[in-house]
Design a protein that fits this description.
Immunoglobulin-like, 2 domains, 4-stranded antiparallel β-sheet, 58% strand, globular
Amino acid sequence: MRKKTVTWFVAVALTLFCAFEAMAQGGLLRAQQTALAKVTGIKVLAVGTFSSTVESRAYTPSVADGIRDQARDFTLARHGAAAEASLDVGIGLRYQLTGSPKGAAVVVDVVVEHPQIVNPDTQLPMTHSTAQFERVIGEVEHSVWNFDTQADLVPGEYVIEILHKGRLLARQAFQVTVKP
């Protein structure tokens, strides 16, 4: 009986070791792909007003309203660079990063120049917001400035820039109006 228990234990340990090794190799492969990733450009697929589902929300001083959303299920509500601001919709771009290898994760900086908005945490007026997001080469992605709070509903020009390693990939200006 003791021999069966030892054999079973060795089999389970070997299985777990192999599973952990495979996970480590997969993580190593992803890390190598990311390190070797080369973004050559961007293909803008749509510009306009989007609705989406917020997956998570983080509070950050680098964004004027203090809110950095991770969202999914983007729907293009209205095509074009003229937009009427309303709560829980946003302005932005749908795009694909070009480069290699396809499927590699890279970090992009999203910079938004906007009319003055007071950050609720710092109480400082801001006209420039920044955030970093992980994106995947070859996949359809979105970078959207969302109007999350009443204080965000400010008319004027908003300019969204997408950069990778300091290189400008896309720049889009929007004229935003607000219903009186």
